[in-house]
From TrEMBL, chain A:
This is Alpha-ketoacid dehydrogenase subunit beta. Transmembrane segments: none annotated. The lineage of its organism: Bacteria, Bacillati, Actinomycetota, Actinomycetes, Pseudonocardiales. The keyword Plastid does not apply. InterPro entries: THDP-binding, Transketo_C/PFOR_II, Transketolase-like_Pyr-bd, Transketolase_C. One of its GO terms (molecular function) is oxidoreductase activity. SMART domains: Transket_pyr. It comes from Amycolatopsis acidicola. It comes from the Bacteria. SUPFAM superfamilies: Thiamin diphosphate-binding fold (THDP-binding), TK C-terminal domain-like. Its cofactor is thiamine diphosphate. Residues 4-167 form the Transketolase-like pyrimidine-binding domain. Keywords: Oxidoreductase, Thiamine pyrophosphate.
UniProtKB/TrEMBL annotation, chain B:
It comes from the Bacteria. Its cofactor is thiamine diphosphate. The keyword Oxidoreductase applies. It holds the Pfam family E1_dh. SUPFAM superfamilies: Thiamin diphosphate-binding fold (THDP-binding) (SSF52518). One of its GO terms (biological process) is pyruvate decarboxylation to acetyl-CoA. InterPro entries: DH_E1, PDH_E1_Alpha_Subunit, THDP-binding. This is Pyruvate dehydrogenase (Acetyl-transferring) E1 component subunit alpha. Keywords: Oxidoreductase, Pyruvate, Thiamine pyrophosphate. One of its GO terms (molecular function) is magnesium ion binding. Residues 83-218 form the Dehydrogenase E1 component domain.
Length: 305, 266
């Protein structure tokens, strides 16, 4: 094992992809600094762009159709909202629109949480059919999801919450690609299911630890893939615990936690022993604030009664 | 084959393609579609000047472009979006800007693969007001992307989005070589497109053609249309240099008529 950070693990994944596949290149604002890989791979493959996100995301889409494997970085997801048009109109629809003739093997790394709007970004893009939206929440996934995403013939949006970037931890010397389809149980318990993802996973794990000290065993599900949702893993956990708390990066209303709660209510209503609880980002004077572990603990205690 | 007959053969093919577009448009009109007589020289001249491997992104007048590119007529009747990966034809983007930036990506993939290909992007003057045209021109210029921008200026964009300046100036301001061309004269279009394509293949970066056309609407303009009609224009030039006779012209027309006729029965 070796010590590293989330951000270093993500950079290492990019470097490995560049070494393994000559079709891979990185494009975005100031990627030469963010990756630190300009010297090793040169300006063709580490391609700095002007601050016109919509156009360089589109250039990524076109070059993916043209046979490349671009990694496009949108370093501030809320400033990158003009890219929604390209992602919706081109990336997510070209396969369907061309009757399967064209595919868009594009990976977009989007960093959220840097500004007032940004907590919601993963949830927003999770409304776009034709897209896969994944949220690496651990060092292992920051290191392993990129390669799996690059092998996908369709567009994948990797949403990284900036609060995770400095996360420290350990990785094995021999890392492997990780799954981008299934949710995963990060901590097993039988009293209550806590569903988190991205920036809310560490919050949820802290809450689970505290609940454990109070004698409540929480089953913590890390969604990993926000679109399409792995409802099977959520339902399997709720089937065991009969209680559900969803911890959302975004605000209440039309977001991911609403979708998950509705899905469980539709498919497992009679399994539930208590109302579904939601914990979500709150509006503040300067923007939004992520859920706190104490709020998750409160919600879980309400649920177990 | 001597130069003269090679030239005559090439011109006869230009004529044939223009007549195909015209007849197909007329058929679409019978079926309740809209026709844009006057587009034939632009579509034919540009697309006959590029190779089969050069990607073509069409953001206006898609059926005409697809027809010259080789998409079968009956596939164009549905009125849907047209994509033919085998023919490297990419039509059917929604807004012009959305497709222009996509085209820059195709050009980028070609540049990264070091292939001697040109990405052709055809759009109309309405697209000039899209912010993304400017972002695309800027990227294309900065990265010297192998792109041929073909902007049709038919002054038909709605009043509010009409460009009242010379469109070539937009491209020139980004350091991109840009020329205005008579889009009703197919030989002028071929001449300009061939020069631009040659320069792009030689690594000289993006080029921009502003092609003036006339879009004829309503009966009052029919007389004026005849004055500028690109088809008689080419026929008269070919007759003057003895490259086509009446008999050949009639044969050519009847071949196209039977292609369109088969379509009507189908």
């Amino acid at each position: 094992m070796r010590k590293t950070t989330y951000q270093r693990a993500a950079r290492e994944a990019i470097r490995e992809a560049l070494l393994l596949d000559e079709r891979v290149f990185v494009m975005g604002e100031d990627v030469s600094s963010s990756t630190g890989l300009l010297g090793e791979f040169g300006p063709d493959r580490i391609r700095d762009t002007p601050p016109s996100a919509s156009s360089f995301v589109a250039a990524g889409i076109g070059s993916a159709v043209g046979g490349m494997r671009p990694i496009v970085e949108v370093s501030a997801a809320d400033a990158g909202l003009p890219t929604l048009d390209q992602i919706l109109t081109n990336a997510a629809t070209l396969r369907h629109m061309s009757g399967g003739q064209l595919t868009v093997p594009l990976v977009i790394r989007m960093v959220s949480g840097r500004n007032w709007l940004a907590h919601d970004i993963g949830g927003w893009y999770a409304h776009v059919p034709g897209l896969r939206v994944v949220a690496p929440a651990t060092l292992e996934d920051a290191r392993g999801m990129l390669w799996t995403a690059l092998e996908d013939p369709d567009p994948v949006l990797l949403v990284e919450h900036s609060s995770l970037h400095d996360t420290r931890g350990e990785l094995p010397e021999d890392t492997r690609p990780t799954d981008i389809e299934r949710a995963i149980v990060r901590r097993a318990g039988s009293d209550v299911t806590l569903v988190g993802y991205g920036a809310t996973l560490p919050v949820t794990l802290i809450a689970a630890e505290e609940l454990g000290q109070r004698g409540v065993a929480a089953d913590v599900v890390d969604l990993r893939c926000l679109l399409p949702l792995d409802e099977h893993t959520i339902l399997e956990s709720v089937g065991r615990t009969r209680r559900l708390v969803v911890v959302d990066e975004g605000r209440r209303g039309g977001g991911l936690s609403a979708e998950i709660a509705a899905g469980v209510a539709e498919r497992a209503f009679y399994t539930l022993e208590a109302p579904i609880e939601r914990v979500y980002a709150k509006r503040t004077d300067t923007g939004t604030r992520l859920p706190a572990p104490a709020e998750v603990v409160e919600a879980a205690l309400r649920s177990v009664g | 084959m001597n130069d003269r007959s090679t030239r005559a053969k090439k011109r006869a093919e230009l004529l044939r393609q223009m007549i195909r577009i015209r007849r197909f448009d007329e058929r679409l009109l019978e079926l309740g579609g809209t026709v844009r007589p006057g587009e034939e020289a632009l579509a034919t001249g540009v697309l006959q000047s590029v190779g089969a491997d050069d990607p073509v992104v069409s953001l206006s007048l898609e059926p005409a472009h697809a027809l010259v590119r080789g998409v079968a007529m009956d596939e164009l009747l549905g009125g849907g979006r047209i994509v033919d990966a085998g023919l490297r034809f990419y039509g059917g983007r929604t807004a012009p800007g959305t497709g222009l930036t996509f085209a820059s990506g195709l050009a980028l993939s070609i540049a990264l693969q070091r292939r001697p290909l040109v990405t052709v992007c055809l759009f109309s003057d309405g697209g000039v007001r899209d912010a993304e045209l400017h972002e695309t021109l800027s990227l294309a210029s900065q990265w010297r992307l192998p792109m041929l921008f073909c902007c049709e200026n038919d002054l038909s964009a709605p009043e509010a989005s009409r460009s009242d300046t010379e469109l070539a100036m937009h491209a020139a301001s980004y350091g991109i070589p840009a020329w205005a061309v008579d889009g009703m004269d197919v030989l002028a279009v071929v001449d300009a497109a061939e020069r631009a394509v040659e320069a792009i293949r030689a690594g000289e970066g993006p080029h921009f053609l502003e092609l003036y056309t006339y879009r004829f609407r309503g009966m009052a303009e029919v007389a004026r249309w005849r004055e500028f009609d690109p088809i008689p224009l080419l026929v008269s030039m070919m007759c003057a240099s003895d490259e086509i006779g009446l008999e050949e012209a009639v044969t050519l027309e009847s071949e196209v008529d039977s292609e369109v006729g088969a379509l009507a029965r189908g």
